[in-house]
Amino acid sequence: MGNKILEMFTNWLKDLVNIFINFLSNILFNYDGLAGYALKAYNLFVFLGGILLVAVCLGKVITQLLSEAEGSQEANVWWTIVQSVKAGALLVLMPLVISLSMNYIVKPFGTYFISNMGVITSENIDSMTKADNFVEVFDSTMSIVLVWLFVLIVLGFFVIKMTITQTQLLMDEIISPLCAISVVTDNFNFMDNWWRDILSHVFTIITLSLSMLLFTEALSLETESIWTKLPAIIGSGALVISGPSIAKSIWYSSGAGRSGMGMARTAVNYAIHKK
Question: Which pTM value belongs to this model?
Answer without folding.
Answer: 0.70
